[in-house]
Amino acid sequence: MKKIIIKSVYVGVLLTFFSAIISCEEDFTDIGSNVISNTKFNTNVDTVEITVANSIVDKIKADNITREPGQYLLGVYASADYEKLEASIISQIAISTNLALIEPDTIVKYQTSTTSIVTTIDTVFIKLPYQATLTDNAATGPVYTLDSIVGNQEKAFTFNAYETSTYLSRLNPADPSKVNSYNSNSVFNKKGNALNAVSNFQFIPKPTDTVMFIKRRASNKTLVKTDVIKYTSATATSGPTSTASGTPLPFAAIPLNEDKFKKIFLDEYGSSNFNSQDAFNEYFKGIILEASGNEGSLISFDFSNRLAVLNPSIEVYYTNTAINTQTGDTIKTFRKNNSFLLSGIRSALYKMEEKTYPVNNEIKLQGTAGSEASIDLFGPDVDNNGIADKIEDLRAKNWLINEASLTFYVNESADITALPYRLYMYRTAGKLTTGLTQIKDTYSEATFGGLLGKDSSGNLKYTFKITDYISDLLSGQQDESPILKLKVYNTSDAPLSSSLFTNYSWSPKAVTLFNQDAANGSKRALLKISYSEKKN
What we know:
Keywords: Signal. By secondary structure, the protein is mainly β.
């Protein structure tokens, strides 16, 4: 009988075959639960031995030029079981049009032969709003749990901010006809010393940091007023105010050097460097937020919040004091605030510890630019005809494929404190294909799998459904079976409008899995195929 291989879940396709099959095979009765059941076919399950190996990632695409990741990591994650990660960020800075240090009418009135205006910075800081869950709104203040953070939150990592001398370009400098791209290990040169007020700032995330008090002072240091700064989801203004309604959200505030900022920013207001965004990008090319150290935590920050005030920015508060130049008396003060979003071209920077994993019975998966796993499903093509020999052996069996799945068990004796809730698989390039591509089931089926689950004994595992992919190979619709890659899932992994795959990763999660080694027993990695075949 002619070989027929079909995934029975496609009910419409199956019904098309039904009339053809019933003419030669009587008593073809039913399909249920994706398995063909009738008096002429046997249903069975077989396993295929596969090979799974560690695959170190050198770099990944890390910029937002063609696709906005939204989330960026800052901090340090150190685990004895995985590569130490120091995650930093580089970003351009957005400016507002018509920035004025002193309003024109104020200059006319107070910049005279007997009066002058003195500008002093009250504070300048990098604002980094945390992603957090409100657990209690007590009378003493809101209580939050910080989200999207791994590692030891009680330990500090070292933070420094630098101006970069590397121009961030959307076009490839070597070929301006092409779009540029930055990787996780791209090099961005630093200009000068750290911009923060205290070098090597010790960064510890604190969910209690929800309010900031800024003392406004005249040029003679006299206290004028204390501003209460809060950021809330109900904030309707372009900047924080003391009248912001709603529950205040937690944020980090890292003080910058006031003298440096005044020289680089405030003193340049009104100059050609601030005439346009392009002019400013040439003048101040970007800021590097650098994390380093051997301990601490790794925090994910949202750079694409629908409310601009909840996105990372540089905040400067300054006071203009009109004084009598003859007596030195203060005539009037004018309090001002400017906000500069960390916007435009951005890129993640991942400094990974070089680590060689032993060849044993396990594999290591780590997000960012850590490690993946390579999966060889069908082995070599010994006869060199372009088809793996094991595929040819399976084709000869004339199976009707009901389901094909890959299962990977977690080695729970390793570090599972940052366990990913989902893994993902994709295809590498082969002899007939170039670039990275999606596995067919990711876009042909509603469920691809890869979610963390448990078996009947409570053992942690990840299972993928790759029925369409295997069906195409065993039917002859596809001949090439390139190496598959297994990685920590990233929200950008799911296919959009094409089968092409781009490897972003800003998830810091990590997991140790068992490979195909026989020593792993029932937890070894296997390809399982459920099929039906014609009875003899």
